[in-house]
Write a structure and sequence with these properties.
The chain has helices at residues 21-36, 52-57, 71-85, 98-108, 120-127, 129-137, 147-155, 199-212, 227-236, 254-259, 274-281, 294-297, 312-324, 326-343, 349-361, and strands at residues 3-4, 9-14, 39-44, 62-64, 89-92, 112-116, 141-144, 163-165, 186-190, 217-221, 244-248, 262-265, 286-289, 304-307, 365-366. With 369 residues, it is an alpha/beta fold.
C-alpha cells in the first residue's frame, strides 16, 4: 500500500526568508504540503525576514539556526534539530544550504534533497569551488526548477538519476480586468535592479522605439544598486518625460499586471523566473531574452517572443510588433495563461512534490488519499 504526503515528515532548510523568488516558492511549497497534511518543520539561517510571519501563519514550526557565523556551529545546531524530528526527508531551498541538508541527512539517516534555483554556474561560484562541488554531489537528490538546469547539473557532475524537475508554481487569478481603450500600451519589467537583469538593455531598446515615434509607457518595478544609474540612463535617452516610470519595490505585483499589456525580461541569465509565470497567469504576452529556463516557459511565437541576449535591435522590433498588434497580444496572452494553468499552477504542486519524494524514497507517494 503506497503512502501519501500526509504520512511524511519533511524538514526544510532555508538560507534566507527574504523577498525573493526562491522564498516565494518555499512558501507555496509549504502551503501545498500543509494542505496535504504533511508534518513540516523549517530551519532558517536568518530571522525576522519577509516570509517568516507568512510561513508562521501556515502553522509551520520555524527554528532559527544561523546565529553563529561558524558553519560548523550552524551544522551542529541543524543536526540536533534534524535528529529530534527524524524526518523522512531533509530538503534545502537554496543551493548554498545544500551541504547543511546533505550532512544533516547523512548523520541522521534521512535522505536529502538539494536545490538548484537559478544559474548553476553562478551558484557554484558563489559557494566556492570545493563547497559548490560538494553542494552539487552530496545530497541524495537535487531538485531544479528547469530542464536546462537539470542538464547543466548532470554535466557538472551530479549523478544522472539524482536530478529531478520541480517546476515553479504560481497562483492563477480567477480573471483579469480589461485594459482601458485608447491608452498607449504599457510595458512592465519587474525584479531586483542588479546587473544580471540588464534593464540597461531594455532602456536602449525603448530609446529606439521613442526615436521611431512608437507610443508606449513602461513601468520598471523593483529596487537595487543599479537604480540611480538606470534613472540617469533613462534621462539621457529622453525617456524620463513620462514614457518610463521607476515605481520602486513592489511587494504585490498583481495591480501592475492588471495595468500592463505585456511583460519584458532582458536578463543575462535566469532559472525559471517567477515574474514570467505570474505575468502569463494574468494573460500577458512576454518578450524575453532566450536564457536559462525561459524558453521552457515562453513558447516563441505562441505565448510571447524570444530574442537573443545581445540583440537589442531585435528586442526593440519584438516590442514594437506587440505594441502595434493588440490581437497578437491577446492571443499570446490567452495561450500563456492556459500554459500556466496546465503546467505551473499551485494546484499541480502537490503532484510534483509527491513524485519528487517518491523518487527519493524509492516508493510510490500519492498526493492525497
Amino acid at each position: 500500500m503506497s503512502r501519501t504526503l500526509a504520512d511524511l515528515r519533511v524538514t526544510f532548510i532555508a538560507g534566507t526568508l527574504g523577498q525573493g523568488g526562491a522564498e516565494r516558492q518555499l512558501y507555496l511549497i509549504l502551503r501545498a504540503l500543509v494542505g496535504c497534511g504533511t508534518k513540516l518543520r523549517l530551519l532558517t539561517l536568518t530571522a525576522g525576514e519577509f516570509w517568516e510571519p507568512r510561513i508562521a501563519e501556515l502553522g509551520v514550526p520555524i527554528e532559527h539556526v544561523g546565529a553563529s557565523p561558524s558553519r560548523w556551529m550552524r551544522l551542529a545546531r541543524i543536526v540536533r534539530a534534524v535528529r529530534r524530528e527524524r524526518p523522512d526527508i531533509v530538503q534545502s531551498q537554496h543551493f548554498y544550504a545544500n551541504l547543511y541538508a546533505a550532512a544533516a541527512g547523512r548523520l541522521c539517516g534521512s535522505p536529502s534533497i538539494g536545490a538548484i534555483r537559478g544559474n548553476l554556474d553562478s551558484e557554484m561560484a558563489a559557494s566556492g569551488r570545493l563547497l559548490g562541488s560538494l553542494g552539487l554531489r552530496l545530497p541524495t537528490a537535487l531538485a531544479a526548477n528547469s530542464a536546462s538546469a537539470c542538464v547543466r547539473a548532470r554535466d557538472a557532475g551530479a549523478r544522472q538519476a539524482a536530478v529531478a524537475m520541480l517546476p515553479n508554481a504560481v497562483a492563477v487569478p480567477s480573471g483579469a480586468e480589461p485594459r482601458a481603450a485608447g491608452k498607449p500600451p504599457v510595458l512592465l519589467t519587474a525584479g531586483r535592479l542588479v546587473p544580471q537583469k540588464r534593464v540597461d538593455r531594455l532602456l536602449r531598446a525603448l530609446g529606439m522605439l521613442r526615436a521611431r515615434g512608437t507610443p508606449f509607457r513602461a513601468m520598471i518595478a523593483g529596487d537595487g544598486p543599479e537604480r540611480a544609474a538606470l534613472a540617469s540612463q533613462s534621462e539621457a535617452l529622453k525617456l524620463a518625460n513620462g514614457s518610463v516610470a521607476f515605481v520602486g519595490r513592489v511587494d504585490d505585483l498583481s495591480q501592475h499586471y492588471l495595468r500592463a499589456d505585456l511583460l519584458v525580461l532582458t536578463s543575462d541569465h535566469e532559472g525559471t523566473p517567477n515574474v514570467v509565470l505570474e505575468a502569463m497567469a494574468y494573460g500577458l504576452p512576454v518578450v524575453a531574452t532566450r536564457v536559462g529556463g525561459v524558453p521552457e516557459v515562453v513558447e516563441h511565437e505562441r505565448t510571447g517572443i524570444l530574442v537573443e541576449r545581445d540583440d537589442e535591435a531585435g528586442l526593440a522590433s519584438a516590442l514594437q510588433r506587440l505594441i502595434e498588434d493588440p490581437q497578437a497580444r491577446a492571443q499570446m496572452g490567452a495561450a500563456g495563461r492556459a500554459r500556466v494553468e496546465a503546467l505551473y499552477s499551485t494546484e499541480a504542486l502537490p503532484g510534483h512534490l509527491a513524485r519528487l519524494y517518491g523518487s527519493v524514497l524509492g516508493e510510490s507517494i500519492a498526493a492525497t488519499r
